[in-house]
Specification:
The chain is an alpha+beta fold. The protein is built from 4 helices and 8 strands; from the N terminus they run H-H-E-E-H-E-E-E-H-E-E-E.
Length: about 180
C-alpha cells in the first residue's frame, strides 16, 4: 500500500488539492445563516443593511421613519431603482446664475428624468418643524423638480401629501 502512494504521489496530491479547493469553495459560497433581527434595528430593503430604530433619547430616528416610507412605496409596487435618498437639488438664480440654492431632499422617487415624489422626513412631529419643513424644504423641492407630489412624513397622523392644484398652488391633505 505504501508503494501505491509513493508511486502515485502526483495523483494523490492533485486529488487532495482538488478536494481542498472544493471544500473551500463550498464554505465560501454557503449562504450566511439568517440572523435574528434585533428589536432596536430596522432593515432597509434598498441599502440592504440594518439601521437603529431609536435615538439616544428613545425616540424613533429619522432613518427609521425613512425606511417605513420606503417600505410603504415598495408595497405599492414602485421599483427599487426609482428611489434616491439624500438627493441634492440645486437651482441657480440671479445674474448669470451666480446665486445658487441647494436643497437636500430626504427621499425622491424618480422615473428616468421625471420626479414623481419628493419627501421630507422628520423623526417626530412638532407643528413648527412641520410648517418649516413644508415651507422651506418641501415646496421649493417640488417647484425645482416639478414633482407631482410632495410628502411631509413624520410617521404620525400629521404626515401629509402635497400636490399641485389646477392654479399651480399646493393642495395639502392627509397622507394615505
Amino acid at each position: 500500500m505504501m508503494n501505491f502512494f509513493l508511486d502515485n504521489w502526483k495523483i494523490v496530491a492533485g486529488v487532495a488539492i482538488f478536494l481542498f479547493f472544493c471544500i473551500l469553495w463550498l464554505i465560501l459560497t454557503l449562504p450566511e445563516p439568517a440572523k435574528k433581527p434585533l428589536p432596536h434595528l430596522i432593515f432597509c430593503p434598498l441599502r440592504q443593511k440594518y439601521f437603529p430604530k431609536y435615538d439616544a433619547r428613545g425616540k424613533f430616528t429619522e432613518e427609521y421613519q425613512r425606511i417605513r416610507l420606503i417600505i410603504y412605496f415598495l408595497k405599492k409596487g414602485y421599483p427599487k431603482s426609482w428611489f434616491k435618498w439624500e438627493y441634492p437639488i440645486e437651482q441657480a438664480f440671479g445674474h448669470k446664475g451666480q446665486s445658487k440654492i441647494k436643497i437636500l431632499v430626504d427621499l425622491v422617487i424618480k422615473r428616468g428624468d421625471k420626479f414623481l415624489v419628493v419627501a421630507e422626513i422628520k423623526k417626530d412631529y412638532h407643528p413648527v418643524t412641520k410648517r418649516s419643513a413644508i415651507q422651506h424644504q418641501l415646496e421649493p423641492a417640488m417647484h425645482f423638480t416639478n414633482s407631482q407630489y410632495g410628502i411631509y412624513w413624520d410617521g404620525t397622523r400629521e404626515s401629509c401629501l402635497l400636490s399641485w392644484s389646477k392654479d399651480r398652488n399646493f393642495q395639502k391633505r392627509k397622507f394615505p
